[in-house]
Specification:
By secondary structure, this protein is α+β, with helices and mostly antiparallel strands. It is built from six helices and four strands. The protein has two domains: about 90 residues, no CATH class; about 90 residues, no CATH class. Helices cover about 45% and strands about 10% of the residues. A two-stranded antiparallel ribbon has the order 1-2. It has a two-stranded antiparallel ribbon with strand order 3-4. β1 and β2 form a beta hairpin.
Length: about 190
């Protein structure tokens, strides 16, 4: 093989690879925007999003709770495209942030369900002084966001802070507020 034929093979390979890479990039962008819903372009914020995998299956993030439709944890990570789209659409249409409390080993634990996404909390805080009960958290969240690192992954809330945050999350996703009796002081102030 002479230098010229070797160059042609490399050039053809390089061109073919570039075209393939461009095709993959365009496909990924198209697929992701299609999978994450045309609603995204209309400004609707989506909590559950669909992502493709290399084996032509799809998964949702954040990972949904197991349902009667998908009781197998492996099945939820390897959905057909239409299954993933239907599941994400259904979950997003039913989305509403609520506050729950549970006694876990003698400790009262307050949670927002579903778990808030860090980027949602940052967006709420970036809107500026969302509520007096969120000032400390927002100060921390924005500082961590600016640093590019967040030291803890578990979001612990007190009851009143959780109720306010759940309402702000519902506002962000254009969902109705949930009813909660966990913070009587808040209910009296907002009446």
């Amino acid at each position: 093989m002479n230098k010229r034929s070797s160059f042609r093979i490399v050039t053809k390979f390089s061109s073919a690879f570039s075209l393939f890479a461009l095709f993959v990039l365009i496909s990924a962008c198209t697929t992701t925007s299609q999978l994450n819903g045309a609603e995204k372009t209309s400004g609707e914020r989506l909590y559950w999003k669909v992502y493709p995998k290399s084996d032509n299956t799809f998964y949702l993030l954040p990972r949904p709770e197991f349902t009667s439709e998908f009781p197998d944890p492996h099945a939820i990570n390897s959905l057909k495209e239409t299954q993933a789209q239907v599941m994400a659409s259904k979950l997003n249409s039913q989305l509403q942030f609520n506050v729950s409390k549970a006694d876990e080993g003698g400790t009262l634990v307050v949670r927002i369900v579903p778990e808030p996404l860090i980027e949602d909390i940052v967006d709420i805080c970036a809107q500026g002084a969302p509520h007096a009960l969120l000032e400390k958290r927002c100060k921390k969240e924005l500082a961590w966001h600016q640093k590019g690192s967040r030291p803890d992954i578990y979001l612990a809330f007190d009851a009143c802070e959780a109720v306010v945050m759940a309402n702000k999350l519902n506002d962000l996703y254009k969902k109705p507020h949930s009813k909660s009796t966990l913070c009587p002081a808040l209910n009296q102030v907002e009446k």
